[in-house]
Design a protein that fits this description.
single chain, 310 residues, alpha+beta, 14 strands, 25% helix, globular, binds 2-oxoglutaric acid, binds fe (ii) ion, IPNS-like_sf, IPNS-like_FE2OG_OXY, Fe2OG dioxygenase domain-containing protein, metal ion binding, DIOX_N
Length: 310
């Protein structure tokens, strides 16, 4: 199978200036976008260009190291954290080409420092500073999302416990000229909100909306906001978590830095009571450790949200 890029089809992908989310009109725009495609590009996020570029730079420097150097941080078999490529779990799996470094950033005492690159020397400091800023943007967005649904602004944040988790997945896609190979297979994120820093030049991310794959254009200083499955559960289906995938590029390598939030381990998450009514009955059962459940479903080719439906 060859994956179409549809590059000759102009698509308008939603953009929101999130510095304006105190206005009622912008909140309504946010609500409408999240209820339809669940994904947009955020400008006005307040993170400086230098900070975004520095994060991209240390990620690129790490991936440019010799293989032996990167393998010092390899994930162990059947482990998610560390450096590696996709696990091959079945013979008929779609082929992918992506190397990634998965790290837990918060809570700080849960970091596994043996997996944090020491080269480049400022990798850890840069990731820490970037993650603090992303966490603040995520919290502001979570509050705005709650307000857009006429909920108390901490309604989503309160579900996460005292020790919410923030993880990073730094993705690196080498050039690949085989059009049947994907960078990442179609999936739903395990987060409530994923904030993605895209490559500055190379496109590749596609989001499924209205049954069609749409390429997310590159806007160098914008952040891609993508709702994860847990937000669809908490909002009882009002907000959508889109399926997305990544195409490979025949000539150019591409990188991206995803930051994903997660509730405290073992916290049970379900639709908020305020969003369950006679006219919108409860759609999903509650779930603990959605991250693991989502991954299990992904490996079996199932949609985790369909599996959680009552
Ligand atoms: O590389 C990208 O643009 C997206 C990666 C992604 O979907 C993920 O890390 O969950
Ligand atoms: Fe994703």
């Amino acid at each position: 199978m060859v994956y179409e890029t549809d590059s000759d089809v102009p698509v308008t992908f939603p953009v929101i200036d999130i510095s304006l989310l105190s206005s009622e009109d912008e909140l309504q725009k946010l609500r409408s976008i999240l209820s339809s495609c669940g994904c947009f590009q955020a400008t006005g996020h307040g993170i400086s260009v230098e900070c975004l570029d520095k994060m991209r730079e240390v990620a690129q420097q790490f991936f440019a190291l010799p293989v032996e150097e990167k393998q010092k941080y390899s994930r162990s078999p059947n482990e998610a954290y560390g450096y590696g490529d996709d696990l091959v779990v079945s013979d008929n799996q779609v082929e992918t080409c992506c190397y990634r470094l998965l790290l837990r950033v918060f809570p700080e005492d849960q970091r596994r420092m043996n997996l944090w690159p020491e080269n480049p020397a400022d990798f850890g400091k840069t990731l820490h500073e970037y993650a603090l800023k992303i966490r603040s943007v995520m919290n502001d967005l979570s509050k705005a999302m709650a307000r857009s649904l006429e909920l108390e602004e901490n309604s989503f944040l309160n579900q996460f416990g005292d020790q919410p988790v923030l993880e990073t997945r730094i993705n690196f896609y080498p050039p690949c000229s085989r059009a049947e190979v994907l960078g990442v297979k179609p999936h739903l994120d395990r987060s409530t909100i994923t904030i993605l820093l895209q490559d500055k030049e190379v496109e590749g991310l596609q989001v499924l909306t209205d049954g069609e794959w749409h390429t997310v254009p590159v806007i160098p200083h914008a952040l891609v906001i993508n709702l994860g499955g847990l937000m669809q559960v908490m909002t009882n289906g009002m907000f959508k978590s889109p399926l997305h995938r990544v195409l490979t590029n025949g000539n150019k390598l591409r990188m991206s830095v995803a930051m994903l939030d997660e509730p405290e381990a073992e916290k049970e998450i379900g639709p908020l009571d305020q969003l369950v009514h006679h006219s919108s009955p409860r759609l999903y059962r509650s779930v603990r450790n959605f991250a693991a459940f989502n991954y299990e479903c992904f490996q079996k080719g199932k949609n985790s949200l369909e599996e959680l439906k009552i």
